[in-house]
Amino acid sequence: MQTLTVHVWDLVVAADRYRQSVSAVAGLSPVEASALEFLLHNGPRPPSLVAARTGLSRTSTTALVDRLADAGWVARQPHPTDRRSVLVALTDGGFDVVLCLYLLFAEDIGNALERADPRLQDDPTLRAAVGGLLGAIAASLRRRAGDRLGVETALRGFRTSPSGPDAAGPP
To answer: Coil, strand, or helix at residue 164?
Structure first.
């Protein structure tokens, strides 16, 4: 378990750096790229679901959608069943930029697979199992990320212990 945890942590750190770097080259922030990716895979969605996916507040999501709309990446559309709501949809330009980012990512995953254990290359069932594990890890991390109180409670003992980061005072 310890080795898996170290490897997943390394993957998360690398993915953060990857998203920052690739997004910046595309002229997007990582949160903007995440919102566009969400729309690519899920189609037009209400701003509340964009907020849930990005972890932003309602106000910050409005500002995000405004920036993306001003840049021509998304457009607001009337909701087909709720006159009080709108949907955020990719424009053709937004679709093109996020598809390009996604295809670059898929290429990088493919390159890693070529260098991986041959069993992963040859066994679609094993690849599906690894994919399922990664999906479960992502869901678990999303749940924890949305549970600020739970994180604060879990870290409370660490933050007040004599050896914790608060022991020496602020950095």
So the answer is: coil
84 and 154 in a single domain? The answer is: no
Read out DSSP for 2-46?
HHHHHHHHHHHHHHHHHHHHHHHHTT--HHHHHHHHHHHHH-SB-
Instruction: Indicate the SS3 state at residue 76.
Output: strand
> Domain of 132?
116-159
Residue range 128-154, pLDDT digits in tens: 999 999 999 999 988 888 888 888 888
pTM: 0.79
88 touches 66 (CB < 8 A): no
